[in-house]
Specification:
Helix content: over 70%
CATH class of the largest domain: Mainly Alpha
Structural class: mainly alpha
Radius of gyration: 38 Å
Number of domains: 3
Number of strands: 0
Strand content: under 5%
CATH architecture of the largest domain: Orthogonal Bundle
Shape: elongated
Number of helices: 11
Length: 295
């Protein structure tokens, strides 16, 4: 409980450094807050209803099960520190963002087929119905979408129409929608690969900004004196050895010396040509002066 309160205070402090919209729009903040709220609720249930301990224990297990799920997902947040994980995690975030419209279409289609199968199932006797509720119909459509279905028990009444809608559902949900999902994921993967290095550094910067509230004001003041830029250095794995660098340095020095000598030579020639032109101009000026005096 102490750890829960500590992390809850951190989240409140982070919320104070940004707007509520910015805080909620960050998926990682939601993943942080959900287990904290559920664990706190689980502890509160123990004190509120001590008489009905069994019922309280059941609800605590529900809440703790959901909390454990999000706590394990939280590990992905820390994996963003490593280069090998950051691009893949960014890919998953991109896929979740890109398939939102696809999921809406998929859910609407599943509801459409589920309603059809539920109504057709009602024509059979209770023991012959292949779906008994809306939930069973939706479950059947989900299994059909992932390729797990049983077409051997479609009742005894109107089976022809049931098989027609079953084939339509198989074509639309299993073939079209799943291949469309694969295409969307492939397109997102290509976009992430094209700018993988940029997105990797964006993940690093996001980590710094998300945890900036943990830095004290004194340390922040020290960092502000350093500068406002994040400098990144890296080693080139294909870097030349020392002997190759020395040879390249000698070649560069020879090329610079040769260019310098040629520049000096051209400059001397230009100065000499200028002096000759000046002398010629002086002679022409003297000749004109003599002509004027004689006239």
């Amino acid at each position: 409980m102490l750890f829960t309160m500590y992390f809850l205070c951190n989240e409140i402090k982070q919320l104070g450094n940004q707007s509520i919209i910015a805080f909620i729009s960050n998926m990682w903040n939601i993943i942080d807050v959900i287990p904290l709220i559920l664990v706190t609720t689980s502890v509160v249930i123990t004190f509120i209803n001590p008489e009905n301990a069994l019922n309280a224990l059941i609800w605590q297990r529900y809440l703790n099960a959901i909390s454990v799920f999000f706590l394990w997902i939280k590990l992905l947040y820390f994996c963003r520190i490593y280069r090998a994980f950051s691009s893949l995690i960014n890919l998953m975030q991109g896929v979740i963002t890109d398939i939102q419209t696809f999921l809406i279409i998929l859910v609407l289609t599943m509801f459409a087929f589920a309603g059809t199968f539920y109504i057709l199932s009602q024509n059979n006797e209770p023991e012959d119905r292949f779906v008994t509720s809306w939930f069973d119909a939706l479950k059947m459509m989900f299994e059909l979408a992932v390729g797990n279905f049983d077409s051997s028990s479609f009742g005894k009444v109107g089976t022809t129409l049931v098989y027609v809608f079953f084939m339509l559902g198989a074509v639309f949900l299993l073939i079209m929608m799943m291949n469309l999902l694969i295409a969307i994921i492939g397109d997102t993967f290509g976009q992430v690969q094209d700018k993988m290095e940029v997105t990797m550094y964006q993940e690093f910067i996001s980590l710094i900004l998300e945890n900036l509230h943990l830095v004290s004001a004194k340390d922040m003041a020290k960092m502000e004196t350093v500068g406002n830029y994040l400098c990144i250095t890296s080693l080139d794995n294909n870097e030349m050895d020392l002997s190759e660098l020395q040879v390249a340095r000698q070649r560069l020095g020879s090329a610079v010396k040769k260019l310098k000598d040629e520049t000096i030579k051209k400059s001397d020639q230009l100065i000499e040509s200028f002096e000759q032109s000046q002398a010629t101009c002086d002679q022409i000026e003297q000749h004109i002066s003599h002509k004027v005096n004689d006239g």
